[in-house]
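quick one before i forget lol
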Amino acid sequence: MPHAPHHADAAGHHPDAAVGAAAAELDTALRGGPFHVALRAAIAARGLPLQRVQHHLSRHGVKVGVTSLSYWQQGARRPQRPESLRAVRALEEILRLPDESLIRLLTQADADTVGGHPTGRSYRSLVAASDVLDKLLAELECPPDDGLHTLGHHERVRIGARRELLGRESQHIVRAHRDGVDRFVAVHHGDPGCAPDRMTLHALENCRAGRVRRHHETGVLVAELLFDTRLRAGDTFLFRYGVEDGTAGACREYVRGFGTPGGQYALQIRFDENTLPTRCHRFTRHSAAAPRGSRQELPLSRRHHSVHLVEPRVRSGMVGIGWDWE
């Protein structure tokens, strides 16, 4: 039986030509990326509106909002949390893509560089650390909501003569928003090449050390800081702790992430007096995978060998200080 003839559309374009162009664009994007371009091309090639993509994901047991999907394909955000990565693997099946094609694009090294040096961790390491962190927090029975709201967080970081992250000290002022809170779980993420087994936690004021978990491959240390009292809703509390590190190579930035909005955050970086950077800057990121924004040069105090920033009220996301060595 002969095939029915194909018809051109009203503008004179052949439908097969459009399909072929979309397939070629998708093939190119899957080979070279970046992730958001490949995702957008895959969705376009299948002709699915985002609401339908969301519906298919829910049938795979994965919950992702249409807004998040829109951000992902625009490049405004990149999937980071384990649940989001499960969504990406489901998308490969839903959009009929080769296994690992989208995940591979996500795990390529971050393109952010300064002076030819990577300014941060690769996306692969950030994804791995995020997954490991969730597991370590689960081991310590740490819920997503720890019952504490941060009113103030002052952090002091020391950089050594070998340009390494020597250690840091954190002072927290918190308010409980439910009864029975009696601990805080601290997270320290060392620089690439660090040795968590050689790091030391110090409970310095109004707390004592509890369980400690370490993960060598990702450089993550998670520790309980136990209070001597159970807070009631509305109670405030102040405590201070430190982490001695000094186990990795040259450090070029220090970043603090915030899952929820909070109070004031102050960060001070103090350098060895004989090893000072050439320039320093403040930056923000919406997430570990997002591009940097709000870059602002910061003055380095030659007398005190330090640089600092103050955020009157932190928002969800990340804020940090980066610097350049000679």
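fyi Residues 90 and 221 are 31 Å apart (CA to CA).
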